[in-house]
Amino acid sequence: MIPGGVLVARRVPPAVAERARREFGAIVADHDMSADEAIGIAAEKGLAALVIGGSAKINAAHAAALPPGLKIVANTSVGYDHMDAAAVKAAGVIVTNTPDVLTDCTADLAFMLLLNACRRGHEYEAIMRAGWRKPFGMPDNLGLQPSGKTLGIVGMGRIGRAMAQRARGFGMKILYNNRTRLAPELEMGAEYVADLREMLPRCQILSLHLPGGAAGTLMTRETFALLPRGAVFVNTARGSLVDEDALIDALKSGQLFAAGLDVFRQEPAFDLRFAELPNVFLTPHVASATVETRDAMGFKALDNVAAVLRGQPPVDPV
């Protein structure tokens, strides 16, 4: 057993909880702890490691109050915009995340959103659940054929590239906007467009795959208006990237044919106007929600804890 003391300050899958207890003798929470609760227990027990999730919103004041024996705060996600990582590091505590493990899972769900937005998945299912007793004719309930469309990807990191790979299977033309151009072997035929505003008018479908925070609100009334009328919008990145009033207006006006959304500015208390729109396919921030991926996320956080408590460098430092 690795000494030092660990608190897993969120609910985790059974396999992750079992490893945490076996390998570290960890305290494993039965609920998602707040920052105050997690830090309080770490101070009381003299713990060396915190494993946290999005509910532990560690700000600068929390960072200043971290107990002296704490060595690492390990996030169980790739994103860490729920915490002030710079302040925690300034307090002398290592911060880690879990890159790589949720790439395919997130791209799978993003492409599911794309397909359901194009093919009116929400509307079709609602018809069936209501009993489907009225026949439909040739011009009724028509969706868009995603095959052969031009897909614009904003943020061509691991997940953006995985999304592009799925789109190639549908014969899509791929444009991408990124801070820097990728090497040709990573582009795999995708076209780099340095200026987002130049790319948007060419995108029949647009999918976001960049982190929130520094990017600010990327999709505004102005940028939605630059898309061709009847485009499809997909977001599995961050809700903070989108002006939701502008998105709702674009969906109502027909500027957007449809949208597929997994993330929102306020979660879980998302804007209920989205639920009233028939041309939106909605999921509750579940892009990483498979058994395989959630286990891998938890294990990667524990790998970082194990390395630091053994006096080694973290595997995935932020």
UniProtKB/TrEMBL annotation:
Give the PANTHER family listed for this entry.
2-HYDROXYACID DEHYDROGENASE-RELATED (PTHR10996), GLYOXYLATE_HYDROXYPYRUVATE REDUCTASE B (PTHR10996:SF283)
Residue ranges occupied by any D-isomer specific 2-hydroxyacid dehydrogenase catalytic domain in the UniProt entry = 6-318
| Family affiliation | Belongs to the D-isomer specific 2-hydroxyacid dehydrogenase family.
Positions the record marks as coiled coil are: none
Q: Which InterPro entries does the record cross-reference, listed alphabetically?
A: D-isomer_2-hydroxyacid_DH (IPR050223), D-isomer_2_OHA_DH_cat_dom (IPR006139), D-isomer_DH_CS (IPR029753), D-isomer_DH_NAD-bd (IPR006140), NAD(P)-bd_dom_sf (IPR036291)
A Pfam family it matches: 2-Hacid_dh
Specify the protein name. D-glycerate dehydrogenase
| Top-level taxon of origin | Bacteria
Give a yes or no for keyword Oxidoreductase in this entry: yes
Task: Cite the D-isomer specific 2-hydroxyacid dehydrogenase NAD-binding domain residue spans from the record.
Answer: 111-287
Q: Give the organism's phylogenetic lineage.
A: Bacteria, Pseudomonadati, Pseudomonadota, Alphaproteobacteria, Acetobacterales
**Record key words, sorted:** Oxidoreductase
